[in-house]
Structure formats: C-alpha cells, structure tokens
Amino acid sequence: MMPRETTRKRGKGRPAENGVGRDVVLATARRLLQSMPPARVTISLIAREAGIDPALVRYYFGDRSNLLLAVVDDMLGDIPRDRPDNGGAATMLRKRVQQVHQFSLSAKHMRRLMVDELAESKSAEVQSRLRDINAQAVEAYRSLLALDGGKSLRQVNPLFLYLMVVGIFDFFVSSEPMVHNAAPDGTKIDELSAEFEDFVADILLNGLRKR
Fold first, then answer.
1. Per its UniProt record, what InterPro entries does this chain match (predicted)?
2. pTM to 2 decimals?
3. Of 59, 78, 93, 126, which is most buried with the most CB atoms under 10 A?
4. Rounded CA separation 189/175 (Å)
C-alpha cells in the first residue's frame, strides 16, 4: 500500500504557489486610488478587482492603512531625485514645480489619501512614515535654497515653499470641474494645465529672486 501524500496546510490568507503576489495587490490598489476617492477603496474592493480573497490582502499588508501607505511610497518612488546641475537653484526649483504638478496629475486624490486617511491612522508606524515623507520634502527645498546660498534667491522658510507648491497644484487638479467651469468655453484642460504650470513657476521664481 502506497503511503498517502500529505500537503502542508497554509495559514489563513497565505498565498499558494503561483498565487497572486504582493506587487499585484499593490498595483491594483494604486490603480483604484488613481481614479477613486480613497474612502471608497476598501480591502474588499481591492481583493475583488485582483480576483483574490481579502485575507490575502491582509496577509501581505496587515491592514488597510499599511496598504495605503505602501501605495504612497510606491507613487513617491516614481519621482526623479533632484540632482545639482549647471542650471543652478532656479532651474532645479522650476523642475521641482514640474515634478509636483505631474505627480498631482498622476495622483488626483493624494491629498485625501494623505490627510483624510493616513493622517487619521492610529498606527505609530504609519504616523512615523508620514512625518518622514513630509520632512524629506521640506529638506529638499531647504537644500535647494542652500545650494543657491542667497546669491540669486531670497532665503525663505522651506516649509512654506513646500506647502505652497503642493497646495497650488493639489487644488488645481482636485478641483478640475470648477477650473473647467471658470475657464473660457472651448478651453482644453491639458493645455490650460501646462500654461498653469509655467505660470506658477514664473510667479514663484520672480517672487524669490533678489531685487
């Protein structure tokens, strides 16, 4: 008599071989968050869209706040890092404005995700990571101003620069219906968006330049 083959029992939610991986769950959540308000993106919805059991989502990420934080980190990872170049601080600042604008376009509901969802999380780990994200962003502006050393740009509070640039583009993108309604009839939103980016960069640089 042949011995009976036994299979190792999986823990609850643990993926079997050739199962859906963590990256697929993350990509599904990111896709949903780019088109829907964060409050509507639940673990059940993500699991349904990925064709898996909700327990698998929890296996990979623990809870919803950790999954949302992973999506934010994944999105931020797409932003090119600033590198000093021959153009100096003014050129780098213009590039930063462009990056923030493009990021806002690709993450339409980022403010809701960061403020309405993650900032309210009770997880110490999530709160710590949020502080790191904001601190790194402010430090990038601080480094940019330090690179100039007061030669051509006024030395201002880098926190204010960060809040201003993020706030301007977040409003423009998240309030697109209102922006479209305020613009002249026939205005193409893509063209208006590009013009607005140039406008913000010019206003910012002219406001910072020493007189």
1. Homeodomain-like_sf (IPR009057), HTH-type_TetR-like_transc_reg (IPR050109), HTH_TetR (IPR001647), Tet_transcr_reg_TetR-rel_C_sf (IPR036271)
2. 0.79
3. 93
4. 12
